[in-house]
Amino acid sequence: MKIFDAHCDVLMKLFLDPSISFSQNENLHIDYQSLIAAGSKVQCFAIYVPEDIHPDARFAAALGMVDIFYEKILTMPGMKHVTCKKDIEGLREGEIGAVLTLEGCDCIGDDLMKLKTLLRLGVSAVGLTWNFANRVADGAMEKRGAGLTAFGEQVVKELNKQSVWCDVSHLSEAAFWDTIEIAEFPIASHSNVYSICRHPRNLKDAQIHALINKNSVIGITFVPHFLTEKTRASIRDVLSQIDYIAAMGGATNIGLGSDFDGIDYTVYNLSSYKEYGNLIEELHKHYPEDFIKGILFKNFSSRFPV
């Protein structure tokens, strides 16, 4: 079955260690061979600039990851850069769409031209923050918990203007509500349910309802401590997230955003992209075919901006 995965951090790993091959590498959760073998159809590749990189060097680091995307990802056979729904619909048998995304606007500082530059280079989804504060907004782990800044409003309006996904994953609650008011193309690329697992990165019921009402998609993520408060996460915990959002009326608003290569610990039997088949097998035990196709692919792909 076709898979649309809305978030991974493999670009960061390739940036930090240029010797790593994307083609096939046991140290990566996602590599080219595992995408082929497991049935990937669209994979989002995030530009995430680590916190320990000096602020003055962050935009250069982001550009370095853009270069890696073009030189190491798109040069693989059948990998196609997709920037709109038409590109996804045009993918042929054996081709995989690669979406370039930005996780956190720290690298642009307060310079809208830097954002426009990244969009011109092919970024198709923008997460406003990582966990902490930047010039755009506060993140989910920032104790202050403030909302969008005036510059942040400019950023969201620019994303609206250019028909780019605005990713609310990682935002503080206040910033989420400021964003949801003005964002025309909001998604949560990799977030789970707070009522199941009480982590600040997860979405509360009112936030989930707001995303459903905006015809958005929530990418269930495989981060163990976002899935459960138990010591070990299982595929059943992934299904519990799906069940909860579906019961809220969001059956067509659920997708997947693994966060592979951005996590140190993994779900049992879902330790890398090559084990996506284990999740799909479990989905088939519990849900009808159309529902499964929606979660795996259609719910995100059908809402990709034109």
Structure characterization notes:
The chain is α/β, with parallel strands linked by helices and 306 residues long. It is 39% helix and 12% strand. It has a single domain, classed as Alpha-Beta Barrel (TIM Barrel). The model has no long low-confidence stretch (mean pLDDT 98).
* Sequence stretches where pLDDT stays below 50 over 5 or more residues: none
**Mean of residue pLDDT values:** 98
Number of helices: 12
The portion of residues assigned to helices is 25-40%
Give the number of DSSP strands.
9
**Secondary-structure class:** alpha/beta
Helix-strand layout with pairing:
Elements: E1 3-5, H1 10-16, H2 32-38, E2 40-47, H3 58-73, E3 79-81, H4 85-89, E4 96-103, H5 112-120, E5 123-127, H6 150-161, E6 165-167, H7 173-182, E7 186-187, H8 205-213, E8 218-220, H9 224-227, H10 235-250, E9 254-256, H11 276-286, H12 289-301
Parallel strand pairs: 1-2, 2-4, 3-4, 4-5, 5-6, 6-7, 8-9
